[in-house]
Fold this protein.
Amino acid sequence: MTTPQVHISPLRFKRLLLTGAAGGLGQVLRPRLKARCDVLRLSDVADLGSAQPGEELMPVRLEDRAGILKLLAGVDAVVHLGGVSTEQAFDLILQANIIGAYNLYEAARKQGVKRIVFASSNHVTGYYRQDQVIDATMPARPDGHYGISKAYGEDLSRFYFDRYGIETACLRIGSSFPEPKDRRMLATWLSYDDLERLVVACLTTPVLGHTIVYGMSDNATSWWDNTPARHLGFRPLDSSEQFRVATEGRQAPLDYSDPAVTYQGGAFVRTGPFED
């Protein structure tokens, strides 16, 4: 077994890699991460548009092992948002989120990349109830194929830290949108500015280790306790409370027999069209 070494992270990087760069959060982070590096390498299977100054475009599928190995060449750190981000049939999840995650970590090992910010999900613990407050030390309770794939990614990253010393922050992202869409998101909302603060904290904290942190703003209602991740120095500055009156006013009365109202995973806990 290789003893993990501490790799102090710089405040500015020569080359960062952002996967999933054409997705919703990828588009948010693209200009913000460029300010943190000399070169920002961008990858996705969707259209990335034109390269801006200081950007490199390298589209590749996560299941393409040889392509991912090339993608990580010369990279100082990775922000990994790539993959399927919704509940889907298992075979689709398998390729992008499970095989793809393995390919990414194997490439990081071979290319000497020592820090990864991995977009996990609150759906790793979606089957905890909304009347519970949990932290990252509690067992996973994934609410579907997507949540299972992210739980796998967290375990995979833990192994690559213990065996090879690759540090990872697993971001159990809540609901990152301009504003909450429903009452559930009053608890899970993560503003774009707080998303940036969280990612930057994970990239620049001197000693990251293997850390699981919930991605949420400083919301009045909260189901998640980030005390085990306080060493990151992440302090959310925004809150969903400013949207409460409007959000509650437009939502229909809640049906408490609906598991989506009971469990933290919301609609992801409902039986979907992907099961026999």
Q: What stands out?
A: Residues 76 and 230 are 24 Å apart (CA to CA). The first helix runs from residue 24 to 34.
